[in-house]
Amino acid sequence: xxxKINKTKLYNALMIVSRSVSSNYPVPALxxxxxxxxxxxxxxxxxxADISIEMNLSNDxxxxxxxxxxxxxxxxxxxxxxxxxxxxxxxEEIQVEIIDGTLTRFSGNKVEFKINGYRANDYPTIDFSTPxxxxxxxAGLLNAIIDETSFASSSKETRxxxxxxxxxxxxxxxxxTATDSYRLAKKVSELNSGxxxxxxxxxxxNEVKSIFNELDKDLDVYLNTKKIQFKSxxxxxxxRLLDGAYPETERLIPxxxxxxxxxxxxxxxNAIDRTSFIKxxxxxxxxxxxxxxxxxxxxxxxxxxxxxxxxMNAISYxxxxxxxxxxxxxxxxACRALKSENIMIQFTENMKPFILTKEKNPEDLIQLVLPxxxxx
Amino acid sequence: xxxKINKTKLYNALMIVSRSVSSNYPVPALxxxxxxxxxxxxxxxxxxADISIEMNLSNDxxxxxxxxxxxxxxxxxxxxxxxxxxxxxxxEEIQVEIIDGTLTRFSGNKVEFKINGYRANDYPTIDFSTPxxxxxxxAGLLNAIIDETSFASSSKETRxxxxxxxxxxxxxxxxxTATDSYRLAKKVSELNSGxxxxxxxxxxxNEVKSIFNELDKDLDVYLNTKKIQFKSxxxxxxxRLLDGAYPETERLIPxxxxxxxxxxxxxxxNAIDRTSFIKxxxxxxxxxxxxxxxxxxxxxxxxxxxxxxxxMNAISYxxxxxxxxxxxxxxxxACRALKSENIMIQFTENMKPFILTKEKNPEDLIQLVLPxxxxx
Lengths: 376, 376
Prior knowledge:
2 copies of one chain form a homodimer. Chain A is an alpha+beta fold. Helices cover 16% and strands 43% of the residues of chain A. Chain A has 3 domains: 2-122, DNA Polymerase III, Chain A, domain 2 (Roll), CATH 3.10.150.10; 133-250, DNA Polymerase III, Chain A, domain 2 (Roll), CATH 3.10.150.10; 253-369, Proliferating Cell Nuclear Antigen, CATH 3.70.10.
């Protein structure tokens, strides 16, 4: 293997592919990026077994790549060193050449690095075959969906399927759900595609968000029951899916409400945020007492630290007085996902789940939070 | 105690005083800041026993302070909560009042916090009496001195006196020394003051640097054999000194040299930095081979990772060829402290300490580094 390439272009590509590589992975070769030089160009592959990324660099796609393949071949270089080497090279054109077995030389102007790589044959075979279901989704819309839901997924491995976001498609509707069983986010989108019901790891979706950030582009999405692929230009990101049936959540969402509050979103976020340092059992528990739209009190008490109290006004309130307590953190995250000036909070009673929505189009995105029992 | 004050002014003052407070200190009251309201104004005190800061706020010093003392008194509030409370208050004027025992209310417009404090009587008495030796030093000069030397002090507690910077004054010369016994920084300054020989903890000097950052101001410095005080406007920072005799370092600095290299400082930093990820026993060991000013090679080899090589040119070189190895990290830090375009490196032989200085005025600041034995 022997090729020349523009340093910055290679570095930017390696930065993307490296997002799928976790150093210290049990399979040593997987802590590296595979470089394959062929007549078609330079292919980069990275994987941590959950997520795999393949990127094809060629002068056809990028005129400024300056790729010239002097000899075909392939090698795997540890990502820990590869990024540093390429970044710190002293010239814009760099040359990469296998000089002896797996010893690979990176040379610039007056600088050269010789690094021991892994044989490409030792790199696990990754099945990048294209799954049968295809849909087309705007990257901006996908990123918004991820922002609006993924934070509600679980960070605990006790129920693995809850560490992902569920995508369910039927009747030209795409329903996206995330829950950690204390709160839930549900988004409904129109989408003309076949039927499927899959759960994508939240970690993979966060990588999708950071890699496909040209928001006005369309992504090709391919999926089956085992894996999902996101594809744009020369980047292919593939993620495994989470096994296990995603819980039926529809029945958890209350339909009848006795109390409806409309309030300025930022005011509520600020009030809860002010008191986030007052924690009981490592949780900031907010008590919300509503008598009328102009008589709303937020309090947070801790035996050890002290007490916080803020008077608030709402836009409107319908219903009897209410006294309810909840995790401040959950409500702040729900509010942040609802990007509208005012939000609507609908309650059934003080020990039943309540839902937060935008004031307008409340069906579009539902944030559900379970209250907390307190002994104030 | 009951007073009103401008929120931002109080917050900024608390940020400064909090630099001396380490939460989780064994004496609970020391994890707080003491607030004392009297007819003279508001006094803030923080301390972690090594460093203590006292700040006096009054309308005489700062017109925009808006301080009005409604009732004299004092309280200690945990710094963990105090900064958050003041920062997040919802109005520019805030009121602070002891309402019951140590329960203290912070109130803004529609927000109030009630926090349990500590009794001011439980706060240790800190002796802020003024030591007898006085000198006047420009804050910019002091910060430069700290930058040029303190990094060379030890971070290990095995020889406590080496965790500080030594200041020695006699014959109108101030000699500043820091060493971790593998490298040494020595600065010589003119200073008209009495004789002293003290070692100030590096940690304290770093706080001095970050607090007294109005570089065109003069600081009053007071010291004796036990403590040192830095004073400007209404801020007083006091640090204990390190016990024990500082080692005699003068005889360690070689006076006769057989090889003299003058080289561009940034080129050398870049070359060493490129290879800093190649480590042997967690140390990046650089081998420098000089044949002539235009035949200089920097290499770094690691059995495990690979090999780096860069060809360099110097401005000038006098002496026989030289082959020497050293810690890349130490030489980079020494180079960074020498703020001149070109630096001079003087060697005796390959297993003796070498010194780095500016090309011009080399006596002003000396950086000494011990070579490393290698088996290349």
